[in-house]
Write a structure and sequence with these properties.
InterPro entries: Aminotrans_IV (IPR001544), Aminotrans_IV_CS (IPR018300), Aminotransferase-like (IPR036038), B_amino_transII (IPR005786), BCAT-like_C (IPR043132), BCAT-like_N (IPR043131), BCAT_family (IPR033939). This protein has 359 residues and is of the alpha+beta class. It has helices at 16-24, 66-69, 92-105, 113-126, 202-217, 263-271, 286-295, 332-345; strands at residues 6-7, 35-42, 46-54, 72-74, 77-81, 87-90, 138-147, 159-169, 180-184, 222-226, 234-237, 241-246, 250-254, 278-282, 298-305, 309-318, 321-324, 356-358. It folds into 2 domains: 16-169, Aminotransferase class 4, branched-chain amino acid transferase, N-terminal domain (D-amino Acid Aminotransferase, Chain A, domain 1); 180-346, D-amino Acid Aminotransferase, subunit A, domain 2 (D-amino Acid Aminotransferase, Chain A, domain 2). Bound molecules: 2-OXO-4-methylpentanoic acid (COI).
């Protein structure tokens, strides 16, 4: 049975003026809307108490399992306002399916796809006025689930909290579409075979932070991880997937396994042939990437994710020095793909794949 998320109106929603001030310069992940969608799960009764309620803090017992064993998963997705004022989600079922995959890996209960989409839709509908218009701004949606059971034993929790919050968002990187530099981590890896690399769980991101800080110390916006076994194969970045454009028009990305199955990654694979590129999912060694940048066999590299959209990578930095990607400027293929994706999301290009979902 699909859960219903009925609206309990916020007693004190922000005024139009307050909201407009936020929407004029939303930043990323710092401002939140008036409501949130919630539901709870217990081993005894399953899913219950679903509603859209005023945005506000949770009261958590200090012994809540998530605070000790990090039994938590999340998603990232966006709502876009089209020129006619309508509001759309991009492939929400894909996020719902991935959320279920993550839940299985983290021993959390699965939320049915229809209930996940219902929750997101109900929140966006309640907080429609918070969906920015114009430019590349959107309403970033963050569904998440955590172990709320008060218990210090190590096993899957028998009480779980589900929630969706919404945050008006501009560009994830402060430079927008300006190329970013990437730090090649030597000491840290992100995911081992059999581990949680393919799940979107907070622990993966927590484990990336020290490497991310190292990247920042070297003037880089993201860290690039290689595989945990041979330290040879490109895995993904701290919080996004990565793509390589070759001189013979291939669009290469690391094969699935220990990486996150990005929704943007998947959309790019589908869009590539429409732009004359051959999509290829395979293992890519870091050595091949560096050599390819030096010889010109690799002409462009970009990062992709819901938050990052498609962001050009201008250089790879490591302890042995810096390797520029072509002339360091955003490449034409990167920009074309970015435009094609954004045009679909904002309703300016025909949605031949049936990706957009009207709220
Ligand atoms: C997203 O792209 O939505 C993510 O979840 C990545 C996060 C680092 C912002």
């Amino acid at each position: 049975m699909t859960l219903k998320f009925d609206l309990q109106p916020s007693p004190a929603p922000r005024s139009d003026a307050e909201r407009e001030a936020v929407l004029a310069d939303p930043g990323f992940g710092v401002n939140f809307t008036d409501h949130m969608a919630v539901a709870t799960w217990t081993a005894a009764d399953g899913w219950a108490d679903s509603a859209v309620v005023p945005y506000g803090p949770f009261q958590l017992d200090p012994a809540s399992a998530v605070l000790h064993y990090a039994q938590e998963i999340f998603e990232g997705m966006k709502a876009y306002r089209h020129a006619d004022g309508s509001v759309w989600l991009f492939r929400p079922e894909k996020n719902a399916e991935r959320f279920a995959v993550s839940a299985r890996r983290l021993a959390l209960p699965e939320l049915p796809v229809e209930s996940f989409v219902e929750a997101v839709e109900a929140l966006v509908e309640a907080d429609q006025a918070w969906v920015p218009a114009g430019g590349e701004a959107s309403l970033y949606l963050r569904p998440f689930m955590f172990a709320s059971e008060v218990f210090l034993g190590v096993r899957g929790a028998r009480k779980v909290q589900f929630c969706v919050i919404a945050s008006p968002a501009g560009s994830y990187f402060s430079g927008g579409v300006q190329p970013v530099q990437i730090w090649m981590s030597r000491d840290y890896t992100r995911a081992a075979p059999g581990g949680t690399g393919a799940a979107k769980c907070g622990g993966n991101y927590a484990a990336s932070l020290v490497a991310q800080a190292e990247a920042a110390e070297h003037g880089c916006s993201q860290v690039l991880f290689t595989d945990a076994v041979e330290r040879k194969w490109v895995d993904e970045l701290g919080g996004m997937n990565v793509y390589f454009v070759t001189a013979d028009d291939q669009l290469v990305t690391p094969a699935l396994g220990t990486i996150l199955e990005g929704v943007t990654r998947d959309a790019i694979l589908a869009l590539a042939p429409e732009l004359g590129l051959t999509p290829v999912e395979r293992r890519v060694s870091l050595e091949e990437v560096l050599e390819g940048c030096r010889t010109g066999a690799i002409t462009e590299i970009f990062a992709c994710g819901t938050a990052a959209v498609i962001t050009p990578i201008g250089a790879l930095k490591g302890l042995d020095g810096t390797t520029a990607v072509a002339d360091g400027e955003p490449g034409p293929r990167t920009l074309e793909l970015r435009q094609a994706l954004l045009d679909i999301q904002y309703g300016r290009r025909e949605d031949t794949h049936g990706w957009m979902h009207r709220v």
